Amino acid sequence: METEESRREAVRRELELVLASAGFSRNDRQTQFLRFLVERHLEGRDSELKESVIAVEVFGRDPGYDPKLDGIVRTEAMRLRARLDKYYAAEGSQDPLIIELPKGGYRPVLRQRLIAQPVGQPVGKIRSGWMAWVAAGLTAVAIAAGAAWWWARPGTVPVTVAVLPFENQDRDPASDYFADGLTDEIIRNLSVIEGLTVPSRTSSFALKGKRLNAVEAGKELGADYLVEGSVLHAGDRLRITVALVQVRDGSRPWSDRFDRKLTDVFAIQDEISNGIVNSLRLKLSPGRRRYETNLEAYDLYLRGRHTMTSFPAKGRFLANRAVQYFEQAIEKDSNYAIAYA
């Protein structure tokens, strides 16, 4: 007779099968996330399976974590659901137990898979038994074909691309606002591309100033790829270098350098997005936003944005200064919607 303990052990065996699969074995963050959810559920601690707890316990966020500013838990949950779906369509297609994570929550659902076992048929049912074996064989072929299609299908699991803060080559901290602003715009552009998951600005900028290699930074952000670069802003000239780095092996499937006029900054942002998307064989969303404004308004907006992200640590008076920058940007270009936002 099956006991509660034997059921728990069966779930744990299934969990280890999942975590040993190709989709999880090289992803420490997803492994830790799934193990946390399943173990808490088996321990009867479903009340702890909420965003604020997961952010702190699994992803190392501060106790004051605000999900409105940092969507790491929701992002990782989406990736986890996709990885589980992919596993059970291929490697785990014959597993007797299935672990699911329904949308809208973090409590795992465990269910048994019904697998036909055509054994022990009476002699008088040889014909029906033979038909059952034929049906089982056709089903196996269909499963194998479906699994092959699933693995070949592009974009089943969203590719996670993290944008690291661009390095300010000017060495003058007063120019950090421009490098940070360029990073923000690239994050914004990539975030609206179907097939990409992009960690939030908060997550990326938490690594600013840390000397981590691509593998270390990628694991920290749960990313498949990193975008890293530098910017030198001198007068009316820009020099921007950028590279897409694969976290798995540190290779660079795409890189570029732009020596252009400041007036080309918006075109450069689009070219960077295009380069990344083409390298990953994705498609640009038709509704991707482009901000066309005069450079003075853009510069004021970047200064305001940089000031606004600094005021929690430096005092509320900086928030008022940020608002002044945004108001000045709107005066320069009344159609600059992002400054209103």
Tally of domains: 4
Rg over CA atoms:
25 Å
Order of helices and strands: HHHHHEEHEEHEHHEEEHHHH
| CATH topology label of the largest domain | Rossmann fold
Please state roughly what percent of the residues sit in beta strands, choosing from under 5%, 5-15%, 15-25%, 25-35%, 35-45% or over 45%. Answer: 5-15%
Helix segment count? 13
**Based on the structure given, which CATH architecture of the largest domain is correct?**
3-Layer(aba) Sandwich
Low-confidence segments, ≥5 residues, pLDDT <50? Answer: 115-156, 285-291
CATH domain class of the largest domain: Alpha Beta
What's the count of strands?
Answer: 8
The largest sheet is:
6 strands, mixed
Mean pLDDT: 77
Helix content: 40-55%
| Outline | elongated
N-C termini distance = 62 Å
The fourth-level CATH homologous superfamily of the largest domain is: TolB, N-terminal domain
- Given the helix and strand composition, which structural class is it? alpha/beta
Could you explain how this protein is built, in words?
The chain has four domains: 4-112; 127-152; 159-290, TolB, N-terminal domain (Rossmann fold, 3-Layer(aba) Sandwich), CATH 3.40.50.10070; 291-341, no CATH class. Strands 3, 4, 5, 6, 7 and 8 form a six-stranded mixed β-sheet that branches. A two-stranded antiparallel sheet has the order 1-2. The chain has 13 helices and eight strands. It has 341 residues and is of the alpha/beta class. It has helices at residues 4-19, 22-25, 28-42, 51-57, 72-89, 126-152, 176-191, 201-205, 214-221, 265-279, 295-314, 317-332, 337-340; strands at residues 97-100, 109-112, 159-163, 167-168, 196-197, 225-234, 237-246, 254-261. The radius of gyration is 25 Å and the shape is elongated.
